[in-house]
Amino acid sequence: QVQLVASGGGLVQAGGSLSLLCRASGRTFSSYGMGWFRQAPGKEREFVAAISWSGRNTDYGESVKGRFTISRDNAKNTVSLQMNSLKPEDTAVYSCAAAATGWAYTQAASYDYWGQGAQVTVSS
């Protein structure tokens, strides 16, 4: 079983940057695919980014391509989301998730474990 804890959210002005960190417990972290999803008030959960167990494969939602970067450090059991050129529409609660089958899935249903969310607020 994997427990996930996200941190690093906050308030930033449009055009600014934030970095989110997801720490995982468990000795098998390096075998899990990891993803970030977000949900804004009144909206459906949206895929943001994903990375495979090895880190060699990544995928991004269309709205964040070219602005966000996902990475992982298997030695530290962490996955990061670097968010640049933030826009007010990026405002949401961001959650990290782990997929036991190891791939960089874009569908939330493919993930087995979820962490609590981190609030990201981008002011205009």
Mean pLDDT: 96
Measured as a percent range, the helix fraction is under 10%
Q: What is the approximate shape?
A: globular
Q: Could you give the order of the helices and strands?
A: EEEEEEEEEEE
Biggest sheet, in brief? 7 strands, mixed
Beta-strand content estimate: over 45%
Oligomeric state of shown chains: single chain
Written account of the structure:
The protein has 124 residues and is mainly β. Helices cover 0% and strands 48% of the residues. It has strands at residues 4-7, 10-13, 18-24, 33-39, 46-51, 58-60, 68-73, 78-83, 92-99, 113-114, 118-123. Strands 2, 4, 5, 6, 9, 10 and 11 form a seven-stranded mixed sheet that branches. A four-stranded antiparallel sheet has the order 1-3-8-7, with no helix packed on it. The chain is globular. The termini are far apart. The model has no long low-confidence stretch (mean pLDDT 96).
What layout of secondary structure does this protein have?
Blueprint: E1 4-7, E2 10-13, E3 18-24, E4 33-39, E5 46-51, E6 58-60, E7 68-73, E8 78-83, E9 92-99, E10 113-114, E11 118-123
Quickly describe the structure.
This protein has no helices and eleven strands. Helix content is 0%, strand content 48%.
Based on the model shown, name its key terms.
124 residues, mainly beta, 7-stranded mixed sheet, 11 strands
